[in-house]
From TrEMBL, chain A:
InterPro entries: ABC_transp_permease. This is Autoinducer 2 import system permease protein LsrD. GO terms for cellular component: plasma membrane. Its main location: membrane. Keywords: Cell inner membrane, Cell membrane, Membrane, Transmembrane, Transmembrane helix, Transport. The keyword Iron does not apply. PANTHER family: ABC TRANSPORTER PERMEASE PROTEIN YPHD-RELATED-RELATED, AUTOINDUCER 2 IMPORT SYSTEM PERMEASE PROTEIN LSRD. One of its GO terms (molecular function) is transmembrane transporter activity. The keyword Transcription does not apply.
UniProtKB/TrEMBL annotation, chain B:
This is Autoinducer 2 import system permease protein LsrC. It holds the Pfam family BPD_transp_2. The complex is composed of two ATP-binding proteins (LsrA), two transmembrane proteins (LsrC and LsrD) and a solute-binding protein (LsrB). CDD domains: TM_PBP1_transp_AraH_like. The chain crosses the membrane at residues 33-50, 62-81, 87-105, 112-136, 183-202, 232-252, 313-332. The lineage of its organism: Bacteria, Bacillati, Actinomycetota, Actinomycetes, Micrococcales. It is found in: Cell membrane. The gene is rhaP. GO terms for molecular function: transmembrane transporter activity. It comes from Flexivirga endophytica. The keyword Ribosomal protein does not apply.
Length: 350, 350
């Protein structure tokens, strides 16, 4: 696998397989660009204020923390695993931060504690998936329940800050109402873009990124060619836990309050964004650029539908249909060739 | 994982295979006995703490509360055994429950038709899930995730903020939710009969044994002449139909339906199935185990209430239990593999 990857840029014949993979990926992203342009034109036609600063700001507020979780999810799905505990980790980190704040901790110690727990929770997933070889879908459904459960133990029915608690510091909660100095973007958007850039570099321009591709395509081959499969997977889950904790802190500050239900059910939104971005659920295929486009499309669509007063229910239908169409289109070519070959066989027998 | 471990070995003699299968079967059965024991011990411990727990009332609660999850766990088991997953069942339940309820509101149907309509709605959704999965060869995780959104959205559009209340449902219908025969709730009897039929069928009939073959190795199953596509389609169809029936029963039990009914049930059901010893990557597990898994999860819920432990602990304990169950399965399958190796070695010596 590694040899394949290394020869790809030189364009030697044995890289044909690989370059076809690239063309497929680019075609997918090309399609996403078209969809994005269509969405933007549609949005501008529906409402003159669509491409305004405030729309862009609120789109960032609404989807930024979800988009953050999509980045480590992309990496994890690339390796053929999945992390369904992301939204619960977001809730746990936010709840812990609220819990500590409620008990008189300073804001920074509370945030740091939340991030540490994020990394630890990720490590728990990582150990179970990477070192005991348990199926990640089962493990992370377990930790989905566990993390949310611990969050519930911490806060119960409490909303922090409640009666008698000091508010979170204004200097930090302003990220929910103010854009970055000298721009229209929300803090969450900027954080996402910076991390997306980093993730893109790691995934597409480093040995670590190539190792991810290799693991997703053929884990055994990857391990024979010197990739420490278990270690890589472990690291990914730790990073995922950490980033989700960051998202939890971000959401808590944005809302200036937190309850244990924060982010419930978002894991499936995150998976939907990543898959719509062209990342293969079987691993080995996908780009950060595709996920970025997917995030923007989902964010823009959500704003349009809200601005044009389409009910949340219809937005759900659209999310589902988009996801469905995306996988069907992605598999359409294979289906066509299958049908053709079957027809050819049928014709031959006659 | 076990398949990759056993794959390089020489073919196992038929005789060994039979005894090995018998032993595996015995172990799996031990799992069901273990689950039943866990439920009994749990009830005993809780009763020791709170003598009111062992009343007819709370036993009925245990049986009734676990019934719907258990019913959906039957269908989910069929699907998971084929190495697929159905995440759309929670939404299916919600849609079916509301439509049946709405028909009652308009006096359009009699009591029995309520169940028929519920099953039909679920069957159609299951058919769509199955067709897309099989025809386009798209991962069922993605298909049913998309359907989860789409159906919930359609449900929301139909519900349109309204709610079905007990007053508009025929008394004979809601009686199923609370009336008992010799102290056993009707709801539980209905589900128990279905579990018994499905459990018998999964052990006995050729077509249902083929589901296991498909889950163990889809390629090998196809090569062996098993109509894998048709079998998987039927598994989805049954899963959908049972979720639809669960919707009709939900209406009878709770007599109150809104656009959120059944949200999140899919992961609870998958948890129950996994706790019940069904391998998440297919090929093994029984309907009885899954149903007992559902019963155990519900018993824990009620035991916590009876033991006056804060309900906040509920989720955390369920999550920890799920992780323990997965780890236990892993340990069990490794043991079986080792034993198989030993038996094979013994035969070679002879």
């Amino acid at each position: 696998m590694t040899s394949d990857v290394q020869t790809a840029p030189t364009g030697r014949p044995d890289s044909v397989q690989r370059s076809i993979g690239w063309r497929d990926a680019l075609r997918w992203e090309g399609g996403l660009v078209v969809v994005l342009i269509a969405v933007l034109i549609f949005g501008s036609a529906q409402s003159s204020s669509f491409l305004s600063q405030s729309t862009i700001f609120y789109a960032g507020i609404n989807i930024g923390y979800i988009a953050l979780m999509a980045l480590p999810m992309t990496f994890i799905i690339m390796t053929g695993e999945i992390d369904l505990s992301v939204a619960s980790m977001l809730g746990l980190a936010g709840s812990l931060m609220g819990f500590l704040w409620h008990h008189g901790w300073g804001i920074w110690p509370a945030i740091i504690a939340a991030l540490v727990v994020g990394a630890l929770g990720g490590a728990l997933n990582g150990v179970l998936v990477a070192y005991t070889a348990l199926p990640s879908i089962a493990v992370t459904i377990g930790t989905l329940t566990l993390f949310r459960g611990v969050a519930q133990i911490l806060l119960g029915s409490l909303t922090v800050p409640g009666v008698g608690d000091p508010q979170f510091p204004d200097s930090m909660t302003k990220i929910g109402t103010q854009s970055i100095p000298g721009g229209a973007l929300s803090y969450s958007t900027v954080l996402f873009l910076v991390l997306a850039l980093l993730a893109g570099i790691v995934l597409h321009a480093t040995p670590f990124g190539r190792a991810l591709h290799a693991i997703g395509l053929q884990p055994e081959a990857a391990s024979f060619s010197g990739v420490r499969v278990a270690w890589v997977k472990f690291c990914l889950f730790v990073v995922s836990g950490l980033i989700c904790a960051v998202a939890g802190v971000l959401l808590t500050l944005q809302n200036a309050s937190v309850s244990y239900t924060a982010g419930t059910g978002l894991e499936l939104n995150v998976v939907a964004i990543v898959l719509f971005g062209g990342v293969s659920i079987f691993g080995g295929k996908g780009t950060i650029f595709g996920v970025l486009l997917s995030v923007i499309i989902f964010g823009a669509l959500q704003m349009i539908l809200t601005q044009t007063h389409v009910e949340a229910e219809k937005q759900l239908v659209i999310t589902g249909l988009l996801l469905l169409i995306s996988v069907i289109v992605a598999n359409g070519r294979e289906l066509l060739s299958r049908v053709r070959s079957r027809l050819a066989v049928g014709g031959g027998s006659r | 994982m076990t398949t990759t471990e056993t794959a390089p070995k020489a073919p196992v003699p038929a005789l060994t295979q039979a005894t090995a299968a018998g032993r595996l079967d015995a172990l799996l059965r031990a799992r069901e006995i273990g689950l039943a024991l866990a439920i009994v011990v749990l009830i005993a411990l809780t009763t020791a703490k709170n003598t009111h727990f062992l009343s007819a009332d709370s036993i009925q609660q245990i049986l009734n509360g676990g019934a719907l999850i258990g019913l959906m766990a039957v269908g989910e088991t069929l699907v998971i055994v084929t190495r697929n997953v159905d995440l759309s069942i929670g939404s299916t339940l919600g849609l079916s429950a509301y439509i049946v309820g709405d028909l009652f509101v308009h006096d359009a149907i009699d009591i029995w038709m309520g169940f028929v309509v519920g099953i039909a709605i679920g069957a159609v959704i299951g058919l769509i899930n199955g067709l897309i999965t099989v025809v386009f060869r798209v991962p069922s995780l993605v298909v049913t995730l998309a359907m989860l959104y789409a159906i919930r959205g359609i449900d929301g559009v139909i519900v349109d903020g309204k709610q079905i209340n007990a007053s508009s449902i025929p008394g004979g219908y809601t009686a199923i939710g609370y009336q008992t025969v010799l102290g056993v709730p009707w709801l539980f009897i209905v589900v128990a009969i279905i579990v018994a039929i499905a459990g018998y069928a999964m052990r006995t009939f050729r077509s249902s044994r083929e589901l296991y073959a498909i889950g163990s190795s889809p390629q090998a199953a196809t090569l062996a002449g098993i109509p894998a596509a048709r079998r998987v389609l039927v598994a989805f169809l049954i899963s959908g139909a049972l979720a639809g029936l669960a919707g009709a029963l939900f209406l009878a039990e709770y007599a109150q339906v809104n656009n959120n009914s059944g949200t999140g049930y899919e992961l609870t059901v998958v948890s129950a199935v996994v706790v019940g010893g069904v391998a998440i990557f297919g090929g093994s597990g029984t309907v009885f185990g899954a149903a007992l898994g559902a019963l155990l999860l519900n018993t824990i819920n009620l035991a916590l209430v009876a033991a006056r432990i804060s309900a906040s602990w509920n989720q955390a304990i369920a999550g920890a239990l799920l992780l323990a169950a997965i780890a236990f399965d892993r340990w069990l399958s490794q043991r079986v593999t080792r034993k198989l190796r030993k038996t094979e070695g013994a035969h070679r010596d002879i």
